[in-house]
Amino acid sequence: MERATATEQGGEPNPLDTTGLCLLSLDGGGVRGLSTLYILKIIMDRLNHDRRAAALQPVRPCEVFDLIGGTSTGGLIAIMLGRLEMDVDECIAAYSELAAAVFSQKSSRIPFNIKGKIQERFDSAKLESAIRKARGQSSDHISFVCTADRNTKNIVRLRSYTLPDEPNIRATICQAALATSAATTFFDPVSIGDRSFADAALGANNPVDEVEGEASNIWCSETGDLKRLVKCFLSVGTGNPGKKPFENSLIRFLGETVVQIATETTNTEKKFIARWAKHFDEKRYFRFDVEQGLQDIGLDEYKKKGAIEGATEGYLIHIAQKFRVRDCIQNLRLKQKKPDTSFDAIIKEYTERTIRQHPGDAPWIVPFDRNHCFTGRESQLSQLQDMLFIKDQTTKIAVTGLGGVGKTQLVLELIYRIREEHRECSIIWIPAIHIENLQQAYRDVGQRLGIPGWEDNKSDIKKLVKEYLSKESAGQWVLVFDNADDIDMWIKNPENGSLPLIDYLPRSKRGCIIFTTRDRKTAVKLANQNIVEALAMSEETAKDILQNYLVNKGLLDNETDTKVLLGQLTYLPLAIVQAAAYINENGILLADYLLLLEDQEEEVIDLLSEEFEDSGRYRNVKNPVATTWLISFERIRLRDPLAAEFLSFMACIDPKSVPPSLLPPGPSRKKEVDAIGTLDAYSFITRRSGGLAFDIHRLVHLATRGWLRKEEVLAQWTERAIARLEDVFPDNDHQNRSVWRRYLAHASYALKPNLLEKCSGYRINLARKLGMCFYSDGRFNEAEGLFVQVMKSTKRELGIEHPSTLTIMNNLASTYQSQANLATIFRNQGRWKEAEDLEVQVMEIRKKVLGAEHPDTLRIMNDLVLTLGNQGRWKEAEDLHVQVIETTKRVLGTEHPDTLTSMYSLASMFRNQGRWNEAEELLAQVMEMRKRVLGVEHPSTLIIMNNLALIFWNQGRWKEAEKLNVQAGETRKRVLGVDHPDTLTSMANLAFTWERQGRDTEALELMEECIQLRTRVLGIHHPDTVSSLTALTCWQTEKLNIGAENEE
């Protein structure tokens, strides 16, 4: 978008282009004022380079800028550049010499004297001497400095001229320089006549408001309407100060003061840019202020000139600043002559004359050129065109969608198409981001439409525009309110007593109002049911956008990288345009950008926070994808705190398939529904079919984490998420499988960062629960990782002999055992030694802490027996087993479950050695006792029955094995359910038995059914499912081979 000039197309030259006001505002900041001068030097050097190329004489700042104003350091520079007519190089030399002379020696290292009163730390006499030495030939250039009256605390302007209707203090150049430089604790106050002055850093450190007020007094004192007279407003800061300037201060007051100054300077800039947004967008207002690198440079550290120059250079080479510097120079290049005090009347006469000369042209008040890179969206464009001008009332339409999805570009393309078909239709575009820039946009519309009274600042300009467009004589029109996200701005009564903004909407049968908004709730309130949602782009359209914005179109030849990159960017137009800008600027490949996206989260957020040049967006609105939602986050936090809490919570869990039951409970069910509705209305979340879960947009998830990290609350919210997960996460009982699977991914995500460093009880307990569920699901590697981490944490926090530590160590040993069992199918992993080492360690500690005959000690001994047996160390295992059984019988009793478990383990070991009779005898004994103690249908009894069937199976006693398998299976179906893992084990065992009996068809059908159930219940990768699949594949292969042999 080119807006260096304001010339009316096809009309007479606009005097604003050649004679409009050029204003220069200079911040305070001690020796960091050199940064201001380095910025001005770049601008003036490039401007004069262009002038020489055009055979024009070089110019000094005093010849370009009609008014220069500054505070403190900025005041000194304003005097040198303005009243003393120095060029920038002369000013840098003079200022450097002045700083060295003044700050080289302190008169006092303490800012307070013995009585506690503020005293100077530098010699004011040296400052005065340096200023007098810097003086050259004075001129009549209009410049002023800001200082503060020490009695009233008011900001006072000391001028190089007089104004008839303003108080004028007669001050010499030296007095003005001293007064604006008299920083508290640095120099003594300055007396001029009977009044005493100090610098105005606290109140006008960024003097843009003072420059605006002074220019209004000079050129438009009657109307106060300065904006239409300003060609270029340049504001230059001295960099982000940090807190170093006052580190030497002994009194807290000084530290608080510097924070106030920095905050006030930033707030002044924000408020000013909101009021001057149109100038910013049209490249007529510029603000340059080094963001990083000057924080460690104090107000008096004159020797750090090189560091100041380096930081300033680093700031200016950033692509965003390069474009702004270019735009500023293009603006200033057109300046030809200075305006006189009648310039206000000249502009007013020109405006009225151009309106009279083009009465038949329908107004076109749109801040953006057509986006020739626009592509796709044809169905939505057709939908919008069909909704225009179809009823006997004002049509209202709202386009809604996620920030960055392309709502503004969609409507921009729409109005250009309307203009092509309806030349007589007026098009008016009003940014609705803030009330300040909306108010200014209304006044600009009033001026462009020639509405009587528009120039009167006391008039209700919104009412005037409403009345104008509501008349039949206004003809056909389209009024666009872009970024209408703040519903309070539309429906609440303002504090100034005027009507809500919605009441100022015009009414006309020939009119159409289009809103763009990120908030569907706002869209419904403004346009009722006339909502068009800008949805995510298709992959093909996203590829077209990337191609349109890339310099090197050949990069798209790599289809794989293109596809992956677009997927990573979620086909979001803003993210694609930003990526293209970065790739163009750095000359990298798509694969290089993909590598950056795979970096650490903080680096990815930095990448997606990179500013980039985009002519289709407002200059005062941040455009990177990672920051575009910040204003929405803040608005949600103010309007719906619970929605902000939900968003913060969801940033700490997996972004996919979030069950509503996982969210922290709100004050009421209605408030919970409203909060989820708010996030849905902003398109931050997408509901899954059935409403049982929703997804949070991946980039929104990332940006929210960046927002929480910036607010320094990410760790706090992560702990809250872990505490909530620990509360709702069930144990690994089979009946809870569907619940824990809904929460698995979220618990894993929340536990990822710094598990070992942050060992809250919630965190450790959740990790333990998660590990057990992974174990039950056969995900042994993941279970192992969690158990190892939890074991280390509990060791460190509770000690190695604490029961919780020993339990985790035992779980870990069990994990190693299960992994080895899995290895019988997928090759032995040989991890018995690790299991044995842990079990021995736990056993010895339990013997020491609990005693050799404690049940927990005996249980770990029983586990050790199994591990030794699985290594083929039968003699050691059997000896230990007998010891465990005898001790358990004596301590707990013959029929105690632990005694029966040890007997069952010994029988299993006999079976593994092929000692079938001993195994059968012992198992039958255990089964009878379990029937008597626990009951015939108890799960433990059925496990013994199932294992006794295996002994029959191993001996080829198929009928007996089948009978027990059927009995165990039917009982398990009835007691546990058809989907229970134990029931499925009986089903698989029966299939194996039938296969050995030659009942192949029945075996295949039963195993296929078992696989289907195991896949659904346990998952395709569970070891039991894999085992069944392997067996079925073998059987099917054997059947095919037999069939082939028979054919031969």
Automatic annotation (TrEMBL):
<feature type="domain" description="PNPLA">
    <location>
        <begin position="24"/>
        <end position="212"/>
    </location>
</feature>
<feature type="active site" description="Proton acceptor">
    <location>
        <position position="199"/>
    </location>
</feature>
<dbReference type="InterPro" id="IPR002641">
    <property type="entry name" value="PNPLA_dom"/>
</dbReference>
<dbReference type="InterPro" id="IPR016035">
    <property type="entry name" value="Acyl_Trfase/lysoPLipase"/>
</dbReference>
<dbReference type="InterPro" id="IPR011990">
    <property type="entry name" value="TPR-like_helical_dom_sf"/>
</dbReference>
<dbReference type="Pfam" id="PF01734">
    <property type="entry name" value="Patatin"/>
</dbReference>
<dbReference type="Pfam" id="PF13374">
    <property type="entry name" value="TPR_10"/>
</dbReference>
<dbReference type="InterPro" id="IPR027417">
    <property type="entry name" value="P-loop_NTPase"/>
</dbReference>
<protein>
    <recommendedName>
        <fullName>PNPLA domain-containing protein</fullName>
    </recommendedName>
</protein>
<dbReference type="Pfam" id="PF13424">
    <property type="entry name" value="TPR_12"/>
</dbReference>
<dbReference type="InterPro" id="IPR053137">
    <property type="entry name" value="NLR-like"/>
</dbReference>
<dbReference type="GO" id="GO:0016042">
    <property type="term" value="P:lipid catabolic process"/>
</dbReference>
<feature type="short sequence motif" description="GXGXXG">
    <location>
        <begin position="28"/>
        <end position="33"/>
    </location>
</feature>
<dbReference type="GO" id="GO:0016787">
    <property type="term" value="F:hydrolase activity"/>
</dbReference>
<dbReference type="GO" id="GO:0046486">
    <property type="term" value="P:glycerolipid metabolic process"/>
</dbReference>
<dbReference type="Pfam" id="PF00931">
    <property type="entry name" value="NB-ARC"/>
</dbReference>
<feature type="short sequence motif" description="GXSXG">
    <location>
        <begin position="70"/>
        <end position="74"/>
    </location>
</feature>
<keyword id="KW-0443">Lipid metabolism</keyword>
<feature type="active site" description="Nucleophile">
    <location>
        <position position="72"/>
    </location>
</feature>
<dbReference type="InterPro" id="IPR002182">
    <property type="entry name" value="NB-ARC"/>
</dbReference>
<dbReference type="GO" id="GO:0043531">
    <property type="term" value="F:ADP binding"/>
</dbReference>
<keyword id="KW-0442">Lipid degradation</keyword>
<keyword id="KW-0378">Hydrolase</keyword>
